[in-house]
Amino acid sequence: MVLGPDFSPRRLSLGDSRQGRSPLTGRGHHSSPPAGAVEAVGVASEGANLLASGLSAEVVETILQKLYALKWNLFTSWCGHRQQDPVNCPVGSVLEFLQSRLSAGLSHSTLKVYVAAIAAYHAPLGGLSVEKVPLVTRFLRGALRLRPPVRPRVPSWDL
């Protein structure tokens, strides 16, 4: 699906790059992401965790940009096959896409990344971001119950 020139996804950033500072750290020089790059809602907390692990702001921004762009591209392709506008499709379409990913074996945490990526571009639904829509949060809770995280029964170390 090729989106026309009137396509205008919500472009959310982690901060104001005009100040010449990184939106994640608030210091140092920050260059704006390339045209078309989009940061998702809720990326700041994930970015803060990555920064706390010792990664530079530039590395964190690259990781997050790539992560959400891939998920969004998969969603737009799915919508294109169904003749739907990925920016303005109804919540039912978002849930059908998420169900297809769950049925393909994806984990709850991966589905949450998809929701964050979709929320970065999708128009609000009933005044709410996609990730705040009650049906989406209920779906994610259900996915967690259906496919809980697997914890290893044996320690990873050996005596």
TrEMBL record:
Keywords: DNA-binding. Residues 1-36 are annotated as: Disordered. InterPro entries: Integrase_recombinase_N (IPR010998). Coiled coil: none annotated. GO terms for molecular function: DNA binding. This is Core-binding (CB) domain-containing protein. It comes from Cirrhinus mrigala (Mrigala).
